[in-house]
Every structure is written in structure tokens, then in C-alpha cells.
Amino acid sequence: MSGITSVPEPTGHRRREVLRLLRSSPGPMSIVAIAEQLGVHPNTVRFHLDSLVADGRVEQVEHGRKGPGRPPLMFAAVRQMDRGGTRHYKLLAQILTEALAADRDPRGKAMAAGRAWGRSLEPAPKPSAKPTGAEEAIDHLVGVLDELGFAPERRTSDGQQLVGLRHCPFLELAETRGAVVCPIHLGLMQGALETMAAPVSVDRLDAFVEPDLCLAHLKPVGAGR
């Protein structure tokens, strides 16, 4: 033995080659035709096609040939953007935050956007004979915030109801653009409570009262500050 071992070609590279070939082909291709074009074994092509079909990037199509014998399986690329590519949602969030920060009323616009977000998160609870109580409404709010990753916790201080937030899903943006991000979160909480016609609302949100804590202050609807 020479002691030399072959290094397998990366799976992702070969799969991209199969997809690229199908995209550039004027019509559907068979497994054998793809293998010949790429200089690989048909079983290799079949393996990658199975994955590409499962991912929704390639589809099996009917063979147009008529006559005796079993026609070969034919494949074509699905005409759409590659859903397996890189995403840059953080960059998009930065762009939109910067644009909102440049508005004449960034806080008002941010709160309105957050409130609309909060109202759309889930359907309002079905109306019942018994009005929604403050405790039920706060529990609902905590549940919504927990689903979104805020790590909420109920608190009280001098008889006032509070919700502590131990995690910010938009931490980096909140640290640099808190004047936009924090009002969005405040509006979100207000909107979530409005869907219940709750007797309480979020009066204000104090950001980073501790390095790992923001505090949402609740008050009865209609009460003054």
C-alpha cells in the first residue's frame, strides 16, 4: 500500500454542480445525462437529486417520449431563488432601524409599528360573559413575551405590577438604537394587551435598569401617570 488516501469531494459542492447544470439546461435531464456531464457515477447523481427534490429545489417531470420500454426519470430545476443560501436579516434590521431613526418622530413611529405587531401576534381571546381580569391579561402578556424570547418574569414594587425582561431578542440593535427598538417593544406589549380589551396597559418601559434587566410598568387603563 502506498499510504495515500483519497479525500472525498465535499457533498455541498457536488450538489451545487448538479443544481447548476439543471438550471442551465434548456430542458429536463436524466440521471445518466447528468452523470455524463459531470463525469460522476449515476448513483452519486441520484443521491444528490434525492436531497434536492426533498429541499424543493429540483422536481421530477414526466418524460415526453412515447413507446415501448420504461422511460428514464427526468429532472428539472424549480425556477425560484435558492432558499438554501445565506440570510442577512440582521443587516436588514439595521437598515430599517436606521431609516426609522431618521424619521421626524422616530419614537411615535416605532411605538405604532410595535403596537401593530402586538395586535397581529395571535387572535384576540374569544369574548365571554366574564370580562378579562388584570391577572389574566398580565399572564397573557407574559406568555406572548416568553414565546418571543424576552425571558419575562412577573414582579411587584410598592404595589405596582411589573414585568421584567431578562433577554432582548434584538440586543445589539437595542444597545445602539434603543430610541427606536425600545419603543417598538413598548408598543408590542401595548398591542398584545389591546387584543384582549385588557383592563391594564403598559405605561412605560425602562431599558437596562440593570445590565441584564429591563422593566415594563403596568397600570390600569385610563389611570393617569
Automatic annotation (TrEMBL):
Alphabetical list of InterPro entries matching this protein: ArsR-like_HTH, WH-like_DNA-bd_sf, WH_DNA-bd_sf
Organism superkingdom: Bacteria
Transmembrane segments: none
Coiled-coil residue windows: none
Protein name per UniProt: Transcriptional regulator
Organism, scientific name: Mycobacterium paraense
